[in-house]
Amino acid sequence: MNTLALYQAIYKRKSTRKYDLTPLDDHMVEEIRTYLATVKPLYPDIKTEFLFAVPQEVTSLLPVRAPHYIVAFSESKAGYLPNMGYMLQQIDLYLSARGLGSCWLGIPRPTKAIRSSSPLEFVIIMSFGQGLLPVHRESKDEFKRKPLTAITNSTSLDELLEAVRLSPSATNSQPWFFTGTEQEIHAYCVVTNPIKALIYKKMNQIDMGIALYHLELAAWHQGKTVRFAENESGARMTPSGYSYTLSALMGDKADKDGKGEQLC
Fold first, then answer.
1. How far apart are CA 261 and CA 254, in angstroms?
2. Which region, left, alpha or beta, applies to residue 214 given φ > 0 means left and ψ of -120 to 50 means alpha?
3. Quick check: 121 and 75 in contact, CB under 8 A?
4. Beta strands in 75-220 (DSSP E)
5. Mean pLDDT for each 10-residue chunk of the chain (264 residues)?
6. 8 Å CB contact between 211 and 219
7. Which of 94, 174, 170 is nearest to 135 (CA)?
8. N or C: which terminal CB in the chain sees fewer CB atoms within 10 Å?
């Protein structure tokens, strides 16, 4: 799967909640498993594990039933939630580019047997399979998203942040805000009140990782290198009502530091 196909999937993917429950053929499942093993982390030092599950191994009160699930586990340490969002969004776009449906599932949980099979902390589940309805949008106009002016105060990042704007998020909350320049972009996550935080704090952090991967793909599409890092100036610029996540160093700045990373 080339990176261009993943980038193009940003502009047409949608969450699939109704599936043909017929399992995919073994060859396709193995191809997905192989691709999943190649996804890169946002934080290389965080241990992760992904297990495949079938319907009877996932419990939920929600009516989202699929033939296949990816159950994500992680070492619990700083950055592990954005890291998981960043990693699983790679497979989400891969599935969409393959013509398959997928959906981030924040409420369903794996059975005790599945949870006990990994020494790491259970984080989230992604469903996938053949959709009963079209898995792609016919046009970008079908996305229900905030305008760019609601997620950035910059006027020079529209092309890059359009891909971010279309990112999926829990209950379509779109918790992100970006500011900076074409060489240095800072990412922030909305701070929720204590009541909402019980539901959204975890998911918002995962959402930030999803958005950062879309940002990286958009930068790649412009021929830029990208390095994510914590940045003191970015932290100092945190807008009211938000918390600082990470900064993206791009193009000449990333190259100058000798740490630029080109997507493969």
1. 8
2. alpha
3. yes
4. 101-105, 109-110, 121-129, 176-180, 184-190
5. 93 96 97 97 98 93 86 97 98 98 95 96 98 94 94 92 96 94 95 80 95 97 93 94 95 54 35
6. no
7. 94
8. C
